[in-house]
Each structure stands twice: as C-alpha cells, then as structure tokens.
Amino acid sequence: MITSSPTPSLIDPFQRRIEYVRVSVTDRCDLRCSYCMPKGFDGFHEPDDWLTFGEIERVVGAFVRLGVQRIRLTGGEPLVRRDLPDLASRLSALPGLSDLSLSTNAVRLDKYAVALKTAGVRRVNVSLDSLRPERFAQITGGGKLHKVLRGLDAAHAAGLAPVKINMVAMGGVNDDEIEDMVAFCAERDFTLRLIETMPMGDTGRNATGQYLNLQTVRERLNERFDLIPDLQPGGGPARYYRVSGSKTTIGFITPISQHFCETCNRVRLAADGTLYLCLGQDSSYALRPTLRAGASDAELEAAIRSAIGLKPERHEFREKPEKVIRFMSMTGG
Length: 333
Ligand code: SAM
Hints:
The protein has 333 residues and is α/β, with parallel strands linked by helices. It has helices spanning 53-65, 84-92, 109-118, 133-140, 145-158, 178-188, 201-206, 214-224, 288-292, 297-308, 328-331, and strands spanning 10-11, 17-18, 20-24, 70-74, 99-104, 123-127, 163-168, 191-195, 227-230, 239-243, 249-253, 266-269, 274-276, 284-286.
C-alpha cells in the first residue's frame, strides 16, 4: 500500500496550526509613536545582535519546510534596515512560501515600493493614526505626514495590493478622525484596520488611559455607513465588515475587548533571533545560539518544534496589564 507522507505542520499544545511568522529585521524605528516606543529610548540591540539576512533566510526556510506559508517583514521599522529588498528576494524565492508582506510606517516607502514589489513582496500594511499633519507629528514624535502619503501613492502605483491601513484608535487622541479615515480608504480602495491599544511596555500601558473599546466604535460607524459582515481569507485577528457601496472593508482588531487567542496561528521572530510565542506573554526561545553553533537544518527544525511547544494558550492583557515589559517594537509588531 502506498501512503503519502502528511504535509508537515506545526501544531502547538492547544492544537492550533502555526502557519504565519512575523519576522522583525530591526528593533529600530524612525518614528516614536506615543503608545509604542518612548521618546529618547536608546536601549536598542546592536546590529551585530541582529540575525544576518543569511540567518533569517535559514530560519524562514525551516519554517516553510514545516508548513508555514506566510511571512510578514516588520520591525521596528523594517525599511530602516539597509537592502531590505535583497532579503525579500531571498525569501520570496523559497519554495512553498505563498505570501510575503510588509508592515511599515511608509516614511521611506516611496523610495522602496517598486524594488519591494519586484523582490516578491505582494502587499503592505501601513500604520497611519491621523490624517492631520500636526496631530500626526504629535502622535509619532515628529513624523511628517506628507512622506507617508507619498509612500502610500508609491505602494499603490507599484501594484502592492491590497494596501491595509493600521490605525490605533485612541479616545481623545484620534477617535474623532475614524470616519475621515474610512472615507480616505474608500477613495483609494484601501482596507482599514482599527486596533485597540495593548498594554505593552510603559508606553502601551500609559496609553491605556486612551483605550477605546472598538465594539462601541463599530456601533458608531454603523450609524453612518452600512457595514456588512465580510469574511477574509488568512485567519488573521481582524473581524471584517464591508462598507456598502464601496470596495473598502474595515477590520476591527480587538485584543482587549474580544480576544482571539483560540484562533492564533502566528509566532514572531525578533531581530535578535528570539522567537516570541505570544505578544502578551514572556514565553520565548532564543534561536540565534542554535544558528551560530552551526546547527544542521534538522536541528534547527527541532529547535523550532520545541519553541512551538511553549506557545501559551492566551495573553493576559486584561488580567495582568503590567506583565509585558517589552515594547511592541522589540517583539516585532
Ligand atoms: N514600523 C512598522 C509599522 O509602523 O507598521 C512595523 C512595526 S509597528 C511596531 C507594528 C504595529 O504595531 C503598528 O501598526 C503600531 O501601530 C502597532 N503598535 C505598537 N504598539 C502598540 C500598542 N501598544 N498597542 C497596539 N498597537 C501597537
């Protein structure tokens, strides 16, 4: 009897299939968003601590052999890492990888959009919390809105699609702009994803005073727009609604008001090679020592399997908001 070997897969202790890895290429960023990284922060890893492109390719290659099909490059700000399109081409050439995407603040995207697309990046998620230049500068610690808008135009022109806008919705900060952001996205066929603030590091915890329950925002938006529940492929955390009369969808990412841990399908590789199993827990596994000790591919895959065995059932942002002391930019957002 001929039996076909089963497709390799990574199953965590709670029977969730891990099929998505977010890969941080640097913990540095050219913005200082108030809820993310503190002003004047200088506790970055040294570039020598970062995995090299060759090491990232080896880790991603191992994940892909273990059944992961989707990779997102992130940071910090991934476009501050020199030659990022070179890494993208190396990863997109891995047999079995079906989706390579990028999360960026888009400040440098106008320069790189075409090269990224040519290198095999299919789509981008862009953080944008305000469409008002002064407010944008205030939230991001001096960021220039016009650069982001230029980056978005370049992404669109380069054919990076879909473009998804990530807006952290904050009470008393930008909640009066959510309708404007829906209109902005509808005009450009962008997807909008609204995100609840998470208590990550001091910055995230300080921002919880501005925490906005997105269930109430959805009810508010429903009064102005006709929102139709929509299913999107990929098993991500957002719950999507289509805005009737447009191609735009709005995703609500509600880690606090309605957590989605039971469907979590992802892990995060930090720039220094630490694999974080959950945004809201400390469980981690350092892969860099394995890599630098000259591990074989089989040993690397075994290390990844051991790491997946440490994935916790759920975050405890509500019960223990003080728990996670690292900022989002350290984990890889
Ligand atoms: N620099 C890239 C960007 O801007 O998309 C990638 C990294 S950034 C850390 C990824 C995402 O994390 C951004 O959309 C940012 O708004 C979000 N983020 C950072 N800290 C957060 C927090 N405390 N709560 C919710 N979202 C947060």
